[in-house]
Amino acid sequence: MSDTLHTYFQKCAQHYGVKTALMIKTDGAYREISFRQFGDRVRYFALGLSTLNVQRGDRVALLSENRPEWAISDLAILSEGAITVPVYQTNSPKEVAYILNNAEVKVVIVSTGEQLEKIQSVRSDVPSLERVIVMDPVDGADVDSFDVLLQTGRERAEAEPDLYMEHVRRAGAADVATIIYTSGTTGEPKGVMLTHENILFNVKAAEKVVPVSEEDRCLSFLPLSHVFERTVGQFFMIFHGITIAYAESIETVAENMGEVKPTIVVSVPRLYEKMYARVLEKVHAGPPLRQKIFSWGIETGRKLTPYRLQGKKGPFALRLQYGLADRLVFHKIKDRLGGSLRYFISGGAPLSREIAEFFYAAGVTILEGYGLTETSPVITANHYDRIKFGTIGQALEGVEVRIADDGEILTRSPSVMKGYFKNETATKEAIDEEGWFYTGDVGEIDQDGFVKITDRKKDLIVTSGGKNIAPQYLENILVSDKYISQVMVYGDRRKYLTALVIPDFGALSEVMKEEGLSFADDVELAAAPRTRAFLLSRVQEKLRDLARFEQIKKITLLDHELTQEAGELTPTLKIRRKEVTRKYFDLLDALYEKEF
């Protein structure tokens, strides 16, 4: 019988035994769970689920932040031949109800009382839902306890030692393991059906990309509901004996990195953009001598970069300078990342080339890859020893990639989804008769097989003059500016481009004070004409080498960041263009009021 995700996991649990598998912070300190303990809890919880009549093919939803119970629940669900339906903890009750109904969920597992309230508020609207399980202790609710089910399963395992192995044979490698609802930037989410072999193929193909060992530690903070973290941050790490430490929250990542000292971190570009901005802000606030030393250090790193990319040592004198730069400049950056980091893995959205090159020069490697929920997810990646900045790397082994006549990136591999749940029409639109999946991204492949994305097909701006413009390409250039935190380029069917800009208020306030501008708060700072003029000049300077029709003529500023809670960002922190345009249309439209 071919391996499934849960049978492969149990082999790993047995092989790695007492080695630490998971770490979670409780009462101010991280505690450890060994692979053996992890494996036991998966077995016990699986048998506990079976007492609730969870059977092969049933859909079980997971609504929780990242924590050990998430991984335990996921693998236990799969062990029963059931299908995991992950739900973002930030989803609204209405969004949760849509997913539960569309997937016809039978059981939902939630983490806290807060998440339970969401379920209770929509429970009467979800006729398929039979049971609710809560990880944390709660009072007076008509729910099942995670810990009680764990104990029930333990008793069953002790009474019938062979029962678990009978259950795990229910599912085969070709069976659906999970239905993941794409967050999307427009429209209702679709349920992507991924099989056990889809995800296992992707995990094994990724082995050739990044060097790992049992000594590695990974900090987990991207939502496990997203396929990127689930495949790369969970299954890949577990299957290679790598310890996973869960961050307390996205806000405590910096603190937790110092405590855990991870060697590998999986994240989306937004983290690197914020890190980059903080580094530059700190340097800018320092004395002139420190700024000069920093600039020299980064320039030294840039000079050595071409040699490092080719696996060469470089000139002796340059290496001596780089060693000095490392002691004076780079080690401070690395120390803030825990001091043990070997590399970052970036995905979920395009990474600015300037930011990737900056960190590489400072001795911090970011390996950018690319994929979609429908492809389990990784399609291409920059290898640890084969990096080309500005690209998303080469296709994984066993993955085919080609460019369609209209520039769309197509892919075909064993990791392409089975289809969209209960949506055959959408499935046929996404996958052709030859098995090619249409990604919706526009790109190109160079002579070395490195793929470059230019934009999302549906996000292309077409000006009234008929020019096609890729907004993400411009936005990636702009967010590398230390005074810009977020930006959305606008101008579809308009004469020229404009942009909605959210400043980095920390860096911006310092430079405006130096120029004599007084302001009470960020609202007043954003409203000042001098602030807008300053940022417009930065925008135009960044884009000066692009074509005339790609220049941004006007900008408008927001006095607050776009957030996921406000519905302006996806769970992987990509801008929901349709929602942001709708919300701030009056501001954007005003930039064209004097058009003739």
Walk me through what this model shows:
This protein has 596 residues and is an alpha/beta fold. The protein folds into 3 domains: 5-172 and 207-263, Rossmann fold (3-Layer(aba) Sandwich); 269-339 and 342-456, Rossmann fold (3-Layer(aba) Sandwich); 460-590, GMP Synthetase, Chain A, domain 3, CATH 3.30.300. 40% of the residues lie in helices and 20% in strands. It contains 21 helices and 26 strands. The strands form 6 sheets. It has a 9-stranded mixed β-sheet with strand order 2-1-11-10-12-13-14-15-16, with helices on both faces. A 5-stranded parallel β-sheet has the order 4-3-5-6-7, sandwiched between helices. It has a 4-stranded antiparallel β-sheet with strand order 17-18-20-21. The longest helix is centred in the middle third of the chain and has 22 residues, at 288-309.
Concise structural overview:
By secondary structure, the chain is α/β, with parallel strands linked by helices.
